[in-house]
Amino acid sequence: MAVIKSNAYGHGLHEIAHILHKTTVDWFGVDSFTEAMELRKQAIQTPILVFGHTPRHRFKEAIKYNITLTVADDEMLRDVILESKKKHHPLFHLKIDTGMHRQGFTIEALPTVLAMLTKNTIQPTGVYTHFSSAGNIANPNITNAQIQCFQHANTLIENAGFHGLIKHAAATAGCIAFPNAHFDMVRIGLGLYGLWPSETMRQKFEKKFPLQPVLVWKTIIGQMKHVKKNDAIGYDGTETVTQPSTIAVLPIGYWHGLPRSLSRIGQVLVHGKKAKILGRISMDMTSIDITNIQNVKRGDEVTIIGKTVSADIMAKHAGTINYEITTRINPLIPRIVR
């Protein structure tokens, strides 16, 4: 399963789907029913699983467009049962809570769930769980316990007479570090885009899996100006230059997804050289120091995310994770496939 939720982790839902649906990908995973419908409108016929909540009024569309939903709580289960009274119900996978304690039925609740499905002659098409700590390879005990719990859940399901369900548990980290968690399908999300779920995983597995980030994020220089020593830059004058300087103004800011927390500390690339962010990042503009970079002119390309200014480096400076950096790139910014 190629996980393309949240605008394909910021890489572009439509663009990534059109690249992958012609490959050996068997499923697409999305967060919302809205994302699933966007794919169907693009004539993508690959099976789709919606991870998040789907309200009952969308069930008719789910049936019509062959979209598989997640049933993870009693209310959703009741909705499916009520829909089955109309002789039709959407395809769905059961979600099992094996220790993450977010979505899913607990092992204790599972017998009641299975009894309700049996009583109403309803057959799920899959069953899955999600690991809380698969990226923490220094402590595999948590994930191994979740794997055992999931295996127990599958035994209960089969003993209740439900066979042939697609079983899946591993996302990128689980797929790489826990081969015993592959089951019938793996869900590749972050790794699909060439990014690592954790630095420890990268250090241990990068030789075996040489992931390469697929995204480069660029803008241009919109304006240039000279400022004097001790001039304050940007809102509230949070930074003053210590020498006569040349600054460039980029037409990009936190509305576009450049974290405000990178104010005064972030870096971008101009002509292949690092240029420091000056002062506060604004909603739509950011100032950078190009004093020591030669032959810069308006319209020159600026790299926000690239090989030497990676999403991982940006995340470290911003005090967050690479997932957040890429997923928060504004969807309105054009994605160009090359």
Could you describe the 3D structure shown?
The model has no long low-confidence stretch (mean pLDDT 96). It contains eleven helices and 16 strands. By secondary structure, the chain is an alpha/beta fold. The chain starts with a strand and ends in an 11-residue tail after the last helix. It is elongated, with a radius of gyration of 24 Å. Strand 3, helix 4 and strand 4 form a beta-alpha-beta unit. The protein has two domains: 204 residues, Alanine racemase (TIM Barrel), CATH 3.20.20.10; 111 residues, Lyase, Ornithine Decarboxylase, Chain A, domain 1 (Beta Barrel).
CATH architecture of the largest domain: Alpha-Beta Barrel
**How many β-strand runs?**
16
Distance between the termini: 23 Å
CATH superfamily of the largest domain: Alanine racemase
Number of domains: 2
**Number of distinct helices:** 11
H-E string: EHHEHEHEHEHEHEHHEEEEEEEEEHH
> If you average the pLDDT, what whole number results?
96
Largest sheet: 7 strands, parallel
Radius of gyration: 24 Å
Strand content: 15-25%
The helix-and-strand class reads alpha/beta
Segments where pLDDT lies below 50 for 5+ residues? none
Assigned CATH class of the largest domain: Alpha Beta
Q: What is the topology, as strand order, of the major beta sheet?
A: 1-2-3-4-5-6-7
